[in-house]
Amino acid sequence: MWFVMRDLKRSNARIPARKLLAEKGFEVFTPMCERLVEKGGKTERQVVPAVADMLFVNSEREMLDPVVDIVATLQYRYLKGAPYRTPMTVSDAEMTRFIKAVNASVSAPTYFLPEEITSEMEGRRVMVKDGPLSGYEGKLLKVKGSRKRRLLVKLEGYLVAAVEIEATYVEFV
Q: Can you spell out the DSSP letters for 116-136?
């Protein structure tokens, strides 16, 4: 099971939670993207977390709790409207599907929070019939004037990635 976590350290911290947890042997996934950052009067590209404080950790709660107790800036994200302190989780199958889609993208994926996706952005329903994402079903991202096909891959309620796919692999449903 994957837990949705928050890392409250500053973005320039020497050892962010994703690195600390990986060093302790946890499987960690942090959606990353490239951003232009100004440093000392120069602009440079850096790979940074797409959502500043979000990371996913594959573990059992009993293994993760002691680390959360020690690291004050590491927290579980909790479900709203659920019993008190019920952590957000993602199933292994859903997380594996999401990670595979993000890693198989032709170019760097674009990440959105669920509330950023509007009905105008969602295009036609498609099925990917070949390639690394064969069998994936979803909706295309509508971008006016773009020739690229991007499939919206969702971690329901947490995160959405728009991954580029070959147009020849897409079949409209």
A: G--TTTEEEEEEE-SSTTTT-
Supply the pLDDT for residue 34: 87
Q: Which residues contact 158 (CB under 8 A, 6 or more apart)?
A: 4, 54, 88, 90, 114
CA distance 123 to 143: 9
Average pLDDT over residues 6-28: 88
Average pLDDT, the chain: 90
- Say how many Å lie between the first and final Cα of the chain, rounded: 31
Cβ–Cβ under 8 Å, residues 126 and 38: no
For the question of whether the overall pTM of this predicted structure is more than 0.70, the answer is yes
Place of tokens 């440093």: 39
DSSP state letter for 78: B
Bridge-based pairing of strands 27-29 and 89-90 is unpaired
Ramachandran region, residue 81 (left: φ > 0; alpha: ψ -120 to 50; beta: rest): left
Task: Output the six-digit token pair for 74.
Answer: 């590491």
Assess contact for 162 and 106: CB atoms under 8 A: no
Beta bridge partners of 39: 42
